[in-house]
Amino acid sequence: MASLRVLVVEHQESCPPRLVGDWLEEAGCTLEVCRPYAGDDLPALTSYDAAVVLGGEMSANDDDTVPWLTPLKAGIRDAVAAGTPLLGICLGHQVIAAALGGTVERNPRGQTVGLQPVGWTEAAAADAWSRGRTGTEVAIHWNNDVVVAMPEGAVVLARSRGGEVQAARFGPRAWGIQAHPEADTEVVRRWAESDREDHVALGLDQDEVLAAIEAARPALVAHWRPIAQRFAAVAAGTGAEEALR
Question: What are the strands of the beta sheet with 86-89, ordered from one edge?
Fold first, then answer.
């Protein structure tokens, strides 16, 4: 069988596909990374077997200052309409929500940082992507913005402890997750350095956060590799139709 072609939209160099990319390749996918911040043209998402939209420091509402956000949102709408499997991570999750009519805003509770439990909803058990969850997942969060109003027809698959949308299904084959299953300690360390002054002011111990993430590495891999590979299975059509009924 031919390898699945997966478009990965990378918003900045410090937010690579890393672990999720590795797991998709293990599942037989060939990744084509588009870096519009470096001058790459954004291709049609529907010309690929699946697409992954990654995180970044910008807001999903920054269309005026991030020139590729508006065409990306149009591409997302096309992909959802065409049934192209789509996965958004953190900013990508928010961009999908905004593209489809949802609302993204700053979290009034402030920045969410470090390991957080995943609060799966009942809907997650029957979902084609998330039904592989164990119910004991933790995830790395590093975000200021959240989806505060869901698009029409979207389904919440998980909520964080504060009640914020943590994972969602935005269409029959379109999902988003607020957390960072793709990140390892090396990636998070770079984010921590960027936010160091803010965290010092808040009294947040970054060394403690990073140590907890490193200690949880085996559990994070065990939790998220199967779910990433399940996305590849949906893209390949393996069991997807049955799971969606």
Answer: 29-34, 4-9, 50-53, 86-89, 174-177, 165-171, 155-159, 119-120
User: pLDDT tens for residues 131-171?
Assistant: 988 889 999 999 999 999 999 999 999 999 999 999 999 99
Whole-Å CA distances, 232 to 28, 32, 103, 135: 8, 14, 28, 21
- Exposure of 150 in the CB half-sphere (CA atoms within 13 A): 18
User: What would the pLDDT profile of 37-92 be if each residue is shown by its tens digit?
Assistant: 999 999 999 999 999 999 999 999 999 999 999 999 999 999 999 999 999 999 99
**Whole-prediction pTM:** 0.94
- Closest among 195, 192, 224, 227 to 207, alpha carbons compared: 192
Backbone angles phi, psi at 181, to 5 degrees: -65, -20
H or E, element range at 8: strand 4-9
Helices and strands, number each (H, E), in the chain: 8, 12
φ, ψ of residue 180 in degrees (nearest 5): -120, 75
Helical H runs in the chain?
A: 18-26, 69-82, 91-99, 185-194, 196-202, 206-215, 217-236, 240-244
Are β-strands 119-120 and 155-159 bridged in parallel, bridged antiparallel, or unpaired?
antiparallel
Of 13, 197, 219, 188, the C-alpha closest to 113 is 188
List the structure tokens of 122.
């009942």
Q: Quick one: CA torsion of 93, 115, 16, 21, rounded to 10 degrees?
A: -80
Neighbours of 11 (CB within 10 A): 24
Q: What one-letter code names the amino acid at 138?
A: V
